[in-house]
Amino acid sequence: MRTVIRTWLLALGLAHGSPAFADDVIVAVAASLVPPTTVLAGEFERASGDRIQIASGSTGALYAQAINGAPFDIFIAADAERPQRLVDAGIGIAATRATIALGRLALFSNDTETVAVDGLDALLEPTIRHIAIANPSVAPYGTAAQQTLEALGLWAANDTRIVRGESVAQTYAMIATGNAEIGFVALAQVVDAGHDPGNYFIVPVQYYAPIRHDAVVLSRARDHSAANAFHEFLLSATAQTTFESFGYLPADR
């Protein structure tokens, strides 16, 4: 893959090949997209000599930081709304906003016999005391989880079984450590962790609105060649293959 990326960078005239010319690129990345972005950042760094710094968190929290002047060069969300808001506020460059992948929701449990056998019906098991989801107000995967529970007739604001993490990364940790018996996370997280397929069930996409991972270059990086090169790399066929290997659906640009 390194040869492919370096060839691609050379075509743009951006492969320095020497750390003497290295630039830092600060990329705000929704927690759910960190695994493939980390892989792509490593490939880009080795091919270009530039350094990619990833700041992760919920889409809502990262958006608030960007609005308040955080020095991000690229913003990658788990929705289309927040990148567009940055464009509307003059913080993002409209021409660079694009969908790089479509996320998928997974029901995850440490108990292989529960999810593997019952799928979504595992939520009905009497032994389930906690259903973990990301906070729907800041995390799009939390919104997707809420939509799924609503479609199943299992959502209630006063349901004490539903516990919320501030990001999908925190939600995953709640389940992985056993603090919640089951919950909804990004498919990419369980794929990245190498979980047995019996530990998760891929939620059919008809249960929730599309989870669009949109990226936008921020205005402060308009003339930042490394930032623009990494953004363009994220839209390449090479990057798309990596996203799909983590369970994402192809971006329908």
Characterise this structure.
By secondary structure, this protein is an alpha/beta fold. It folds into 2 domains: 2-102 and 210-245, 3-Layer(aba) Sandwich (D-Maltodextrin-Binding Protein, domain 2); 105-202, D-Maltodextrin-Binding Protein, domain 2. 38% of the residues lie in helices and 20% in strands. It has helices spanning 2-12, 34-48, 59-67, 81-88, 112-118, 140-151, 168-176, 187-192, 225-234, 237-245; strands at residues 24-30, 51-57, 74-76, 98-103, 105-108, 131-134, 162-165, 182-186, 200-202, 211-217. The protein has a 5-stranded mixed beta sheet, with helices on both faces. The chain has a 5-stranded mixed beta sheet with strand order 7-6-8-5-9. Helix 1 crosses helix 2. The longest helix is centred in the N-terminal third of the chain and has 15 residues, at 34-48.
- N- to C-terminal separation? 23 Å
| Series of H and E elements | HEHEHEHEEHEHEHEHEEHH
Shape from CA axes? globular
Broad structural category = alpha/beta
Which residues form runs of ≥5 with pLDDT under 50? 1-21
Residues in helices, as a percent range:
25-40%
The amount of beta strand, in percent, is 15-25%
CATH architecture call of the largest domain:
3-Layer(aba) Sandwich
- Count the beta strands: 10
> And the CATH topology of the largest domain?
D-Maltodextrin-Binding Protein, domain 2
Radius of gyration: 19 Å
Mean pLDDT metric:
90
Number of helices: 10
